[in-house]
Every structure is written in structure tokens, then in C-alpha cells.
């Protein structure tokens, strides 16, 4: 079966080698990556002899008390935060996964999604493997354990070459930390240094938090092998293939203070907003953004047009799983869940509402209506990315094709469905230019499959589903 | 003794009358007011016969589970959130306070600080009163219980006339809700309606959250008496005195989507930033704000100057008491606590850093240094309010006069102390104009005592301290 | 109103003076007294300058973490555990209660119940007092604060002379610990020493737990004043009245390893069982007791008759508030809540079931039926105390007179109602002899009011209720 | 490596098939088995389509809230409680273990210990298996998944025949419940019925708790296959070998109200005490037992001698992991951890202290000293089992041979070491007779290896250790 929940799996990984405060720095690193996954968190440390593990459902601050971090002794650590999805939110899936095999202990933390995960799993199960989780990551452990290669490095390389899809990967043993990037570099993974210690993180913002210095990004197909005393051997398990950095990281997912390919995400978003203003100006009184991810684009749009940026929408920050959701009845009476419109700002005004993307369209419709109820006379929706017409199979939570509004409707139809006065999307070319990666590759080295349907890899599991459906 | 901790007490209050979902709506209301107090939260409800109470230390989402809200039966409710201070963070102080007296149960929630609280307490203790809290609010209950007035309304009026200072006050009994505003209207308190139900809130943002409509603000010296079936009797316990709305609510404290005196706070802050640009332009490459409270002013500054607003500083959002603070050692190694500078944005740039205020100066110095370490070539600090030279005695957490940097140093000296290339404050006149209250009163009806030393009331407790010191 | 819930209030108190581990020893002391109160627990310590307080609902081990005990600095401590009742199970009632009054801080922990508590409260409220709890104990604080006596010792004595009923009382200030026993000595309170430190406890079992040595019991009407350096001044606030030690402490309430008046409770219970065997022998195969309180009496009964004692009934030990109670449906299907009969032991046997008392009769009926369902051919019930015909107003949870089965039914009627083959109670004289207090006073110095209706004090509050009903 | 921690693993299992309240009844069943394992608890249910799982460290009441039990939908359930050991107290080890393999989901709960667990594990790892736990149970899952048998039943039988040691085993799939007993029947496992539902439990006390009826015990080498509609197919995977029921279940481990082989445990213990009195009478004033496990034997001893049984020792009941352990310093000052002696009972008396066993001797010495400190003039220790000279490899927490006092010392030496006036153990023959299993097999079908060294199976893992050491 094609398991859609697995597609939702966007995550963050963090690792540090040979530092006396490894667990604590990993805690701060994961905290900086919290936006990448709010379902669960975990840290595994090693003192060179054995692992110490703590993992649980919840935010980083909920999972780790000071006591628990103190128990994570050892100078090398890897950590993981996982996105909140409904289907497979079970404790067993919380990463880093930890296994024993013939050669000792091994822990794995990964960001991304395999497109042949189900296929690998079925093959392994047919050969007598048992699985305790429903994640791709467990298949990776089985492949390593079953490899006949002489060394662990050999086994890891053999395994990586069987994986297809997106994977920014940390593999910890009591002797070494392996760090790998898939041959398309679909998910970000950066290398930094803190004193003598190598640090690895899904986003550079974690380096700023802990005071580490950014070195470079890991290259597609690269495998780094770092020993406890911070000797790093740079090798490769595969030639790089067409670079395909996820464009949604810039558009929506990454933190604005992170850099990807040397480009600051906030700045890229402002440029997306400026480009959008150029492509789809609207004569209005006020520009507003959907917080938090669209704020930068909205400011860019405002700067480009000279129309003032105002706080027309505000987000209620509730964090954690303990917030009591309003009942359907209360929501119908007007209790707002996450967003409120600011009446004083939008009443009697023509508004451009900048958002980063439209996926199913239901949220956009709700926000447009919030603005209208607060007195906006016109609501013009401007989207700082092209229409999402195709599902992502590499780890971003979009949706099934049937649920993607742009997959089945024209821009005009969407405009009506979301109750806007006008609607415009950014062009794919405009987007790629605005982000501005200095590259000569196709799409300047971006994966834009969700916009164009042109996937950088074969889609094993998905194809099988379509065949059997 | 003059207890400085008591001065720190900024809070939020919320009340709703005669609604079948009173407790749950109060939960959402308090959640919207969470920024006003993160130490503790409490709700008291009545079904006309008896109180139901739940209070505890922590954020609203930490204090209230769905179960606990469900147990708060009754159609009228008041709630309170309290600021986090060190001295008196004890469970007994968590509001609303609840008492039994000769005529039944009474609950009190208050925002603001009395300047004769210690005086009243001493007088009461000398007459045999016992106190279970260290808050002003308990003195109010004693005064009501000891009043010889025939009716509770009479006792409340008699009591209010003995109070001096800031108090936006909700008093609940099983029959009525009393709502009062001090004669200077120092702290905000708004009246709204949700269907037939009257709603009261420290800020209007709570109305937007629950879908209520703003009616008006309570007037200075006014006392409203609302029965369970939402009949509201508007009366007065005192003639209004010189209106003295706290200017810091606009500058820093209130949520940007709230309106005070019909003026949206975000918009006022943008105007403060524009005025600041007018008064103290600087030739730079980038404008940035100290998140979150200075973002609006920084955008206003950028709009007025045409220099781009960028995300030069970012706040790590950790919420709740469970975050593990970095040790001194880790902080010295570069682990950031709350703010990081975004290297890619500021490196090699001349920066204007807009902040809302400087109190002790230590934070400003730290932020300037963050920007310099991230590569800013010049850091020009622009403050969207005048220098704070005097302590607040009405409930805002500033500090003791000795600790106020502007009380003892010139602007030039402060500039050096915080390591800035230049420093400018907004003028008091510019500030008052920019906020733009439509009023002919002195300072357009603002309290600006912390800037000018001109307090709207006599300072009983503080004077006594100075005399005895 | 006559508040029945207040009658249920059986509790335990513990205090220690001038010991470096005061809080921790109080924790162990309260743990030993846990059987006396499972609703809430609290400790107040003083270092001579200020109080440290921690109190909450729950068992001692639930309320106190190691961290929280560590924060309770200071060398003098008092603690309290409170019985679980439904009516007034609120956080505000958790003792020790702590107050500020004109002369500083004061904390009070008490075991027992006043019979003029409502009367005192009404008089205080009429004079403008406010109450934050629904306990008698708060009235004591008001009386002390309102006293005109020159010294605190004077105020305490003046106050104690206004109290009528049962009270074993600890009063802590930053300078002294006051320890008082009501003039009838209704509730136990023992004095011990641990090194140089005076220790006080409701039961001597707490002394064994912490390694302290028993000195003597406090005398009726006595007031001890202990300073932080363990100087103890023995004084008196009242002449002793007729000693009236609660006989239920021996029968049911105290721990079997405690001594009261120098008599070990387990040994007294065995003698009660022996006396019961003498008064009401039954020709059976097996003797069993209702665990845990009747085990000693059952063994005594077995020893006296030579019939073997067997484990015919077993108690499921679930502790704490987290146990999931079986639904009515499951209980009807046979899921046992607390007690199970052991089929192998009772099947085909004639059984004497020894129990300590019958209050409402419903429990006895259930247990008899458990034994019959497990195959007992005859069930003869033997009770190691006389019939309870009158409510207790001094702090034991019995019930309202209407609910006391022996108040309205003959022994024969009760026998039928509980479905026993025969039923016998111990005689009052037999009980008094068996306990064996070496005293010439009436009833050898026992309160036997619940059996005889002869109360040692006037019953102010109860009388008023009867008059108004 | 020979992992001693694994030997400590005494546990309890419970299962129920086709009952609408399966999870809740399993909760009560596990609660009744709580004494068999206090480290962790878990329940897996199936509704015929998929599993629902909840497992965590802690007591049953700590692990399961009402909410969590409600989420465990499905009419068939298995549950597990696990003993508290230090080495492998990790979440991953909490049973029932749950796996996915080629044919679907599978859950396993087991009581007992394999003596070839390490051997199996090494063989599996050598063939590429990965392990996520450190328990034997995971090896069982691997063997099933790797079996080439056509049916699951075939795979289970093939697997069981590879296991050597003690295992009372429940295996759940979405279609069936498998129940197996090792060919020696080392650990107890009983079959009951509740209405139409089959119920399985380590001890019969769980049947009494939920109102189920005992049917019979599962036979050695038997495999039961129960479908969701309660059809039970009785089959066998092995011929029964010499029955070897653990004698320690009678002596110490099982609950006194359980029956094993139709013999009530409390009654058996009383007979052990009577036999002990016959073999080793002592002229004393008082008989006392070490609570709780020795109480029955002590009463038996007292009955046989006519010397009164008294409560000379009392256990402080603290349950759960939250109890604050006294520091070494406090323990030296006399703070008792678990047991106190009752001075009033033993002072000036000659005491027989009956205990169930002596393992390392340290506890016995401490208890003898407690009695002496409380004033006992003579302490005669009587043990209701023979000296433990050999480690148990089948799941009881004894200790390594070096630590077993009786392995290296004569009875006289032990007597001196524990500071007793005299010491006697029950003879092996006397023990076997007193328990009274109606059997003609060797040792009447008991395993007495820990007393005699005559183990019923080959000791694979242990032998290897001895060889390599």
C-alpha cells in the first residue's frame, strides 16, 4: 500500500562530534530546528563505549528536562525532530532509531523520504526481517546489518546506493559519525565547526544559536566519516546527479534566518515578494502577509510597490499539544483558532494578502473571509510561488493529487473558490530567478516537481500504487 | 518595606457574563492576553450558586487541561494572567483571588498596582487582618468585607475610593460582576459583546479571538454592575481625574493587533518609527528591529526612509518554564539565549537597529554586540520612545531608579555604554503626536511619568520608603 | 449550615525543631502518617527569617519531589496530611495554612475538628473577616491576629480557650513552634527527640521511621513553646478536663506499630479479638479478617479459639488517585474494587469474619457476599467494637446519624441486612478492658461517644443545626 | 557476554480474547499481577484489523490513564508487567514487544528467561538481524519471521522448539492469540473463562479480581491457538519433559491468594511455617514474620508452637518511583527505608523471626539488628526454605553464585554473619512435602535447582560464560 502519511515526513537533524557538552548543544540545535518537526524529538549520545538515548513525543522542551539531558553522557551526539502527522504518530517511530546488530550499536537520524521505501521493506520482510517502526529509516538499518561488506563504511555505501529519494542522513556508532546527502541534495544539510568540533544541521540557524561557524553544505552523493577526535574523512558513495534542492525550503519551510546555498531565506522571500509585485501588481491601500512564513514576501511586495505593509493578520501563538481546540460550535460562533484579522487595519481598505502557497485552498478561503468579516472592501490574493499541481514524494507535507486545488482547477476557478477579488501566482521562472541560486543547472539546481510534475527520480512506491489502484 | 517586586506586576484580566461557554471563552481570552503575564493563570466561574476555581503557576495552556476547563461550570467567569517576577512567584498569589466573607463568596482579578497598597495593608493588619498573599488585591477584599455600607455596591464604592494607583478591576460574586477603572484610567480595559453577553478584557485582541464586538472602553472612575442576565448598570465611584493612559502600552506592552483609545497598536508603532526616522535619520544600508515588539516601528522607519527593512535579528521562541537555560559557560562559548543576529543579512552592512526602549541598557549592549559579531560595520540605535528616567509605580516592570541607565547618564554616555555608533531617542512630543490620541488633555491623556517624572498620583508607599531609607 | 464534610477531617501532623534536615525528616514523618490522610500534604519550613512552603493535593510521594523538598530550607518544619473527602477537596484547604499578620508569618497544622468552628467563623465574618478556606484552622489564625494580648504566647492561649472540640495543634512562626493539645486530649500527639531536636507527631510510628526516641504524650490542655535552639517551655492554657482519648484510634485508625498511652495498637487489637472470642465464640473451620485494619483482631480471635487464621480476604493495593475505577457494568460482571475473597481458602468452609466496626453496613454486606460467592458455607461476622450509634464530631469520618445502621437497627436486623449467619459486637466494657489503658477515669479515659452518645463537650454547631432543621 | 541483568527478569502476563472490555480487564489483570513486575507495563489490543499499543516505564496505574485505556480499542488484548532491574531498564524493552513482519503485525509477552537467549541472538545477528531491545523476546520474533513454515502456527512451533529455558508466552496477531508453556512448565500460566472469553494469566489472583473462573493450568509443551471468536485449538509443540515448577513461586514470589497446581499459596506458606516449627523449634516469647511474604509462614510457625504471633516488624508501603530515598547520612542517623521494628512488641522479648529465604544475607543482618535495637533480647532466625546455593537461570532475581551467602558459607557461619542467636533453614524434603503438590515426579514436579544445583535444562549461555571466563 502506498502510505501517504509517510510523505508528510519533514524533519530536522543535528549532530556534533567530540564536544564535552554534546547533548546540551544538540538540545539547543534541535530547539532551533523545532519548526521542522513538532511531533517528537530525540537525542542519542555516545561516550565511545555505549549509547545513551532519550526520545519521546512532543516538543524539544517537553521531551527533555535538564535531568534527562544530563544523563545523556558522551561527547558525540545526534538529534532529530519530526513533523506532526496523524497516521504514524507513535512512539516507536521517534528518531534517532537505535539498533543492535552483529557489530554493535547503531543510531540513525534522517530528513527526507525514500521513494522506494515500501519496496525495500517488502523485500526485507520477504527475507525474514521484522520491523518495529513504520519509517523508512528502519529499512536502512536492516540493509546495513545484512550487508556483506567488510567494513561498516562499505556497508553504509552499499546501503545508500540502494536508496532512492531524499535523505539527509546521520548514522552514529560508538566509533564514528557518518553523514550522507542523497545524490540530488533534495534536503538541506550544512557542515559547521564549533571550536574543534564538527557540527551538522539541517539548517544554518542552529549554528547561529550555538555559536558555531558555517563551513559548507554537504555535496550530493557525499559521505563524511567523522571520528570521535574530529578527523573527518570526505568520501563519496555516488556521483552527484542533477542537483534538485527543494524550492519549498526557500518558499515556506526553512527559518528566515537560515541560509541555503549561501542565500538567506528571508532575503530570498523578500525577492519573491518583489518579483510577485512586478508580475502581479494590484492597486490597493494595504499590503499584508499571512504570518509567519509570508511576512518577508509581503514586506518585499510592499517595498516594491510603495504601498504600506500593515499587520492585517495576526497569529495566535500556541505551542505544544496541550492547547484546547475550540469545538465546532465555538468556531462557528467566531472563536478563531490560529489567525485573526485586525479590524482597525483592514476595515474599509483594499487589501493585498500575500501568502507563500496554496495547497488545498481551504485555508486561503478562510483567511480571505476573515479579512472580509473584518471590513476589507477588496481582497487580492498574491502567492509567492507557482500553483502546486503535483504531490511531493521527498518529504514535504503537501497532499494527495486529488486534494491539490491547483491540480484540478484554473487560477480563475481557484480565485472564486477562495472568494478573492483577484488571484495571482508567481511564475516558476520568476521564482527561480528571485531565489537566485548561482547555478547553471536545470532550474538553477532546484526541485520544482510539485509545480511542474518533473520529478528528479523514478517514483517506485507511488508508481506501484497507481498500478494497483 | 517597599517591595519592588510588586511593581513588576503587569497583568491581564478577562470576564464574560451569562454565556453557556463562559469558562472556555475565558480560556481563549486569557490565551490572547498571554503576553501580559506568563507566570500564572486562573479562572473563577459561578453558576449563580457557587464558585468553581482553577488557578496555577504556568502558561494558560499549562494551567488548564480540557478536563479542568470542563469542571468550571457556570455561565459567568473571570480570568487573570500574571507577569513573571522572581520575588513573589508563589501559588498563593495567583489571581483571581477568592474569599468568603459574611455575605458569601467574592473573587477579584486586577491589572495595575496600587501606590498605597503597603499603607492599606499595614492599617488592616494593625486592626487584626490576616493576609494569605503578598498582593495588593487581598487588601481590596479586606476593605470590602470590613465596610459598613448597606449593599455590596456601596461597599465596593467605599473601597475603591480608598485605593490610589492603577487598577482595572473585576469583582465577581454569585450574583453580579463589578467592573471598575481607576480615575486616571492608567491601565486599559475594554467592553465588548458576544451575542447578548457582556465581555471585558484588558485588550481588544481577546475580542477578535473569540468573535466578540468591541463596544467602548470603560471610563476613568466608572463602575459597571452586570447581573447574570446581562443587565448592565453604569455608575461611577469617582469623578474622572486627568486621564493618564500608560504610553508604554502603545510602545511595548500591548499586542500589535489590539486597539487602545481606538488606535491600533501596530499602526501607532509604525508611526512612532516614521516619526523617529524624521527626528533621527541615519545613512545606512539596512533597517532592522528587535523582535517582536520593535518590528512595527522598524518597518515604519524603513518606509519613511526608503532603506530596506531586513530580518537582522531573530528571536528564538521558547515558551514555558521548561526550557533549559544555557549555563554561563555555554553562553560565553556563544550559545544564544533569545536573540540571534542573521549574519547573511548584516555582514558588511551599516545597520539601524530600532528598539522600543532602553531600560537598564544591558540588553541593548548585548544586541549591538551580536550585530557587530555577525559582521555589521556600523550599528546605529534608534529608540521609538524617550529615555526612561523614572520608575513606574503603576504596574509596568521597569526597574528601580538606580538601575535606569537614562536616569544617570546622558544620551552620549549611553551610546558609548551600549557600544553603538550613534544613538537617538524619540522626543516625548514626537511620541505623543505619533501615537495620536484625539484628546485635548495634558500629554493628550497619557501617563508619561517614566519619561518626565510627573506622576499623576501621590506616591504613598514609595515616599515612605524614601523617607525611611 | 452544618457542614458534614468538615466532620470527615481526620489528619496527621508532624513537626521538628532545629535539625539540618528538617524538611526531609518531615517528609519521612508524613509518609509514616500517610494512612491518616491521603487527600493532600504540605510542609512549611523556616530558617528563622522567612517561611518556605510547599503544599498540594495528593499523596506525600505525589506532592513532594526531591527538588521541592530541597527548596524547603530551614531547620524547623511542620507538616500535615489530610483525609480524602469529597466536599472540600480544594487546594486552598491544604494545610499547613500560612498567614501574614501584623507580627509576621504564621503557619498552622491541626488534627481534629472543632465543634464550635461554624460559630466562631460566623462571629468573625460578622466583624469583617474574610476566609480563603473552608477549614476550622483559618478561624484560629483570625483569632490570634485579632487578639489584644501583648505576646504571641498570650494570643495563642487566649485563642485556644475559645476553641471547643478536638485539636492537636502545631503553630509555627519564624521564632517559635507552639504545640497544643485540647483539654480532653481527643486526638493523639506524641513528643519525641532526635539528637537534640524535639519532634512531634500524631503517631509514634513516625518516630520509629526517622530513628527518633519517644519521650511522652502531650497532656490535655498543655501548650509547649519550643525555640529554634530546642529550648522547650512547658506551659498550659487550660486545666485538663476529663481525658477522652478516641477509642477508634485503637480500633481502626492508628497504624498497628504505633503506641498510644504506651499501649501498642496491634497488641491492643489482638486483645480486642481475644475478648471478642470470649464474648462471642462461633464453631467454624476458619477465622479470617478484613484487611488491613482487622487482621490483628482476627489473629487474636484465632489464637483464643485455636481455630486457624487464614487469608480468606485479600486487599488489592492501589495507591494514589490515578487508579481507574471499574465502571458499574464491570463491577456487576464481577470486577472487584478493593477486596477479593480467596476461593481456595473459604470454599466449603464455615467462616468467622472479624471486622473492626460496622458503620453504614453496606461494606459488610458486600464482604459477606464475596465470601459466600467464593463458596463459604456459613459466614459469622464478629465486630471488635460496639455498635456505632452516634456520629463523631471530633474528626473521625463516620457518618450522619441517619446513615449509621446501628442507630436504627437491632443487632438481629443488622445481621439480616448484611446477610450473615450470625453477628456479634464486642461490648463497650469488654473493649475498654481489652485496650487496657491504666487509668481510673471514666471509661478509662476514652471517648466512647460514638457508641454511647455521651459526648465529652457541648456540641455547639451540631446543636444549632438540629435547632434550625 | 553473559548478561546477568537478564536473569532478573521475573514478569507477569495477562491475555483476554473476544471481550468488549478487553483493554480495561487487562488493566485490572495487570494490576493484580503488579507484584510480579514494577518497572514497566504494557497492553496491546487488536480489533481484528490493527494493533493499538500503550507501553511505558512505571506501575500499571502510572502507565495507564483512563484516556489511554479508552484508546486501546479491540476485543482481544495481551498485557505485561516487568520486574525492576537496573541494567536494562529502558523503554525499548517494555513488553509486549510489537513487530511487523511479512505477514502482518505480531506482539509478544513473555514470563521467564531463556538459557540460550544469547546464543540465539548471536546466531541471528550473524545472519544480519538487527535488535532494538536487549530482551530474549525479540529473538523469538526474529525466529518466527525467518521461519519457512507455511503457516504462522507452524512457524511458532518451529520457533518454540529452538528455545531452551523458561517461557510462559502470549503471541498476538490480528487473527489469533497463541499461548505456550515451556516443556518443563517452569513459570506458572493459568487458563480461565469470563463469560465466553478465554482469559490467561500468570497467576489466578487476576481471575478473582476480574470475576473470571479458573479452568486449568496450561500443560508443559502445550500450544493453544485461540481465535477472536473464542474457539480454542489445543495442540502441542513438544512432548512434556520433567515438570519443574519453580518452588520460589510458593515460597516468595506469587501472591498469597493465588493457587498454583490447585494449591493456595498462603496455605502452602502456612504449612511451610508449620513444618519449619517441627524441624527447628525455638523457645521464645514471640513469633514475628518479615512482611509481607513471610507473614503466612510466621503465622503457621506460631500456630504449630502455640507461641503468639506478633507484629514485630512493619513495612513502610511506598509505591512507585517517586519516593525520595533517604541519603546515606540520614540512614546512618536511623531513618528507616522499608522496614521498622515495633519496639513495644519486641522489647525485652526473645523473638523468632521467620523469613522466606536468605539470598545475600545483607537484608537478614539488617533486620536482625533492627530487632535488637528495638530491644529484642534474643533473635532466632527461621527460614521457610532451604539455603539458596545456586543462581536461577529461569527468571528469578537471585544473584550471581559469588553473591549467594549460602554458596560459600555454612549455616553456622551465616548465623554469625547475620548476627542471629540461632538460625535454621527448612529441609528440601520438608519444603516439598509442605507445599504438597500431588505428584509422583521427581521433587514432586518442582524445580529446586537453586537449592540443589540440579537444573532441569542445559545452561547454554551460562556455560559459555564459564568457559570464556
UniProtKB/TrEMBL annotation, chains A, B, C, D:
Catalytic reactions on record: 5-phospho-beta-D-ribosylamine + L-glutamate + diphosphate = 5-phospho-alpha-D-ribose 1-diphosphate + L-glutamine + H2O
Sample GO molecular function, one term: amidophosphoribosyltransferase activity
Origin: domain of life: Bacteria
Pfam families: GATase_6, Pribosyltran
Keyword ATP-binding: no
Keywords, ordered alphabetically: 4Fe-4S, Glutamine amidotransferase, Glycosyltransferase, Iron, Iron-sulfur, Magnesium, Metal-binding, Purine biosynthesis, Transferase
Residue ranges constituting the Glutamine amidotransferase type-2 domain according to the UniProt record: 11-229
Residues the record lists as binding [4Fe-4S] cluster: 246, 392, 447, 450
Cofactor note: Binds 1 [4Fe-4S] cluster per subunit. Binds 1 Mg(2+) ion per subunit.
Positions that bind Mg(2+): 293, 355-356
Matches recorded under CDD domains: GPATase_N, PRTases_typeI
Cited function: Catalyzes the formation of phosphoribosylamine from phosphoribosylpyrophosphate (PRPP) and glutamine.
Annotated protein name in UniProt: Amidophosphoribosyltransferase
Amino acid at each position: 500500500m502506498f502510505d501517504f502519511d509517510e510523505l508528510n515526513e519533514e524533519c530536522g537533524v543535528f549532530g556534533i562530534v567530540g564536544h564535552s557538552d554534546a547533548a546540551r548543544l544538540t538540545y539547543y540545535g534541535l530547539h532551533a530546528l523545532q519548526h521542522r518537526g513538532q511531533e517528537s524529538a530525540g537525542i542519542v549520545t555516545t561516550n565511545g563505549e555505549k549509547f545513551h538515548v532519550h526520545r519521546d513525543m512532543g516538543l524539544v522542551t517537553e521531551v527533555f528536562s535538564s535531568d534527562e539531558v544530563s544523563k545523556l553522557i558522551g561527547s558525540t551526539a545526534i538529534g532529530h525532530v519530526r513533523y506532526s502527522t496523524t497516521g504514524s504518530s507513535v512512539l516507536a517511530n521517534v528518531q534517532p532509531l537505535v539498533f543492535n546488530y552483529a557489530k554493535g550499536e547503531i543510531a540513525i537520524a534522517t530528513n527526507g523520504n525514500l521513494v522506494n521505501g515500501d519496496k525495500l521493506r517488502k523485500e526485507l520482510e520477504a527475507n525474514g526481517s521484522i520491523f518495529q517502526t513504520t519509517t523508512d529509516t528502519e529499512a536502512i538499518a536492516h540493509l546495513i546489518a545484512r550487508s556483506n561488506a567488510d567494513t561498516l563504511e562499505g556497508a553504509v555505501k552499499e546501503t545508500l546506493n540502494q536508496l532512492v529519494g531524499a535523505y539527509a542522513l546521520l548514522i552514529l556508532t560508538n566509533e564514528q559519525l557518518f553523514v550522507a546527502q542523497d545524490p540530488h541534495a533534495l534536503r538541506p544539510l550544512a557542515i559547521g565547526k564549533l571550536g574543534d568540533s564538527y557540527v551538522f544541521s539541517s539548517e544554518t540557524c542552529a549554528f547561529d544559536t550555538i555559536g558555531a561557524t558555517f563551513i559548507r553544505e554537504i555535496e550530493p552523493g557525499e559521505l563524511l566519516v567523522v571520528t570521535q577526535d574530529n578527523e573527518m574523512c570526505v568520501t563519496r558513495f555516488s556521483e552527484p546527479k542533477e542537483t534538485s534542492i527543494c524550492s519549498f525550503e526557500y518558499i515556506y519551510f526553512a527559518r528566515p534566518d537560515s541560509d541555503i546555498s549561501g542565500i538567506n531565506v528571508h532575503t530570498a522571500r523578500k525577492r519573491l515578494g518583489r518579483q510577485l509585485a512586478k508580475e502581479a501588481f494590484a492597486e490597493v491601500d494595504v499590503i499584508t502577509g499571512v504570518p509567519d512564513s509570508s511576512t518577508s514576501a509581503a514586506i518585499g511586495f510592499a517595498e516594491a510597490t510603495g504601498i504600506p505593509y500593515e499587520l492585517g493578520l495576526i497569529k495566535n501563538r500556541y505551542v505544544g499539544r496541550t492547547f484546547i481546540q475550540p469545538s465546532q460550535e465555538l468556531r462557528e460562533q467566531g472563536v478563531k483558532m490560529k489567525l485573526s484579522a485586525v479590524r482597525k487595519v483592514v476595515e474599509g481598505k483594499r487589501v493585498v494578502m500575500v501568502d507563500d502557497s496554496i495547497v488545498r485552498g481551504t485555508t486561503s478561503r478562510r483567511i480571505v473571509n476573515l479579512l472580509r468579516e473584518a471590513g476589507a472592501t477588496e481582497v487580492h490574493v498574491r502567492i509567492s510561488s507557482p500553483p502546486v499541481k503535483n504531490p511531493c514524494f521527498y518529504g514535504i507535507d503537501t497532499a494527495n493529487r486529488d486534494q491539490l486545488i491547483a491540480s484540478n482547477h484554473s487560477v480563475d476557478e481557484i480565485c472564486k473558490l477562495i472568494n478573492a477579488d483577484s488571484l495571482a501566482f508567481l511564475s516558476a521562472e520568476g521564482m527561480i530567478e528571485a531565489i537566485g541560486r548561482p547555478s547553471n543547472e536545470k532550474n538553477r539546481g532546484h526541485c520544482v516537481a510539485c509545480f511542474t510534475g518533473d520529478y528528479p527520480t523514478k517514483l517506485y512506491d507511488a508508481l506501484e500504487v497507481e498500478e494497483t489502484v
